[in-house]
TrEMBL record:
<comment type="function">
    <text>Required for the formation of a threonylcarbamoyl group on adenosine at position 37 (t(6)A37) in mitochondrial tRNAs that read codons beginning with adenine. Probably involved in the transfer of the threonylcarbamoyl moiety of threonylcarbamoyl-AMP (TC-AMP) to the N6 group of A37. Involved in mitochondrial genome maintenance.</text>
</comment>
<protein>
    <recommendedName>
        <fullName>N(6)-L-threonylcarbamoyladenine synthase</fullName>
        <ecNumber>2.3.1.234</ecNumber>
    </recommendedName>
</protein>
<comment type="similarity">
    <text>Belongs to the KAE1 / TsaD family.</text>
</comment>
<dbReference type="GO" id="GO:0005739">
    <property type="term" value="C:mitochondrion"/>
</dbReference>
<dbReference type="InterPro" id="IPR000905">
    <property type="entry name" value="Gcp-like_dom"/>
</dbReference>
<feature type="domain" description="Gcp-like">
    <location>
        <begin position="53"/>
        <end position="316"/>
    </location>
</feature>
<keyword id="KW-0479">Metal-binding</keyword>
<dbReference type="GO" id="GO:0046872">
    <property type="term" value="F:metal ion binding"/>
</dbReference>
<keyword id="KW-0496">Mitochondrion</keyword>
<dbReference type="GO" id="GO:0002949">
    <property type="term" value="P:tRNA threonylcarbamoyladenosine modification"/>
</dbReference>
<keyword id="KW-0809">Transit peptide</keyword>
<keyword id="KW-0012">Acyltransferase</keyword>
<keyword id="KW-0819">tRNA processing</keyword>
<dbReference type="InterPro" id="IPR017861">
    <property type="entry name" value="KAE1/TsaD"/>
</dbReference>
<dbReference type="Pfam" id="PF00814">
    <property type="entry name" value="TsaD"/>
</dbReference>
<dbReference type="InterPro" id="IPR022450">
    <property type="entry name" value="TsaD"/>
</dbReference>
<dbReference type="GO" id="GO:0061711">
    <property type="term" value="F:tRNA N(6)-L-threonylcarbamoyladenine synthase activity"/>
</dbReference>
Amino acid sequence: MLILNKTAGVFLKPSKGKSFNFHPGTLFLHKIVLGIETSCDDTAAAVVDETGNVLGEAIHSQTEVHLKTGGIVPAVAQQLHRDNIQRIVQEALSASRISPSDLSAIATTIKPGLALSLGVGLSFSLQLVGQLKKPFIPIHHMEAHALTIRLTNKVEFPFLVLLISGGHCLLALVQGVSDFLLLGKSLDIAPGDMLDKVARRLSLIKHPECSTMSGGKAIEHLAKQGNRFHFDIKPPLHRAKTNNEKGKRGRTHRAILFCKQRDLLPQNNAVLVASGGVASNFYVRRALEILTNATQCTLLCPPPRLCTDNGIMIAWNGIERLRAGLGILHDIEGIRYEPKCPLGVDISKEVGEAAIKVPQLKIEI
């Protein structure tokens, strides 16, 4: 079994009598990537091969800690990442039953995210890269979310993706592994952040059924028992040509029409992918299903456990980049994390200026 030096955070040679759980004589002729994720409040790692097999994974969630503090405290998240990253990486590697020497590369989230959290993952990864002499693949967190669907489904480029999470809300056209056209984004805070704030304002953590749930999960859980028609509330900024008109459904509808008018998407059987933590919400998925049915598109969503932050999506993004020959670094000098980083080329202004009229859809959920 591999031993991790807790002080240095690097792999050491196994001491005498220790053995790594590995099949002797097995030849790895395909690419295998270790993915490491620490962009926010989950410490995660996974080993994935180029056929999409998840060989090993591990994750440590900080949710319960941050629920008690009323939100994510960056310094607390940083310390928890430091306390757990070595164990999590070792667990993923041990579960994979391969030797680290058989890894093709190490992929790590370096942008965007919480600076203190990103720093822990990057520092650990660079030490590991130096120890194992493996290529390093820097990963854009939102690119990884967008490409996860290609791990679970046979999806070809181009396709639309709606990324909705606690930190982001992006609508983009995915033309290639690292080729994105940004069609729209949230005006201020992300949907997941908004749900968490509402949950805190309502003190849902004190509800006996929601004490260990994130804000979004708690609201969805309790909303199933309520009457959403009790109050008549109009959507905010419902006349604005921005990404929050009538929620994300209206913006996504306009994006589909825009892309089809400009032949950026197939006229039939175009794919819309919804990913990110909020994409696990049943109401969101149902509204998007109604939209895609009306526009002759197909809605695809990764399994809920792959919608939230995880190491699998980072490793898979590494596989995608390895196969495409993109962003594979052998010289790690000067690599820095980027707390803020756009995704692709922003054409959202062009989408707004197109002034496409969106037909009314009857949403019954």
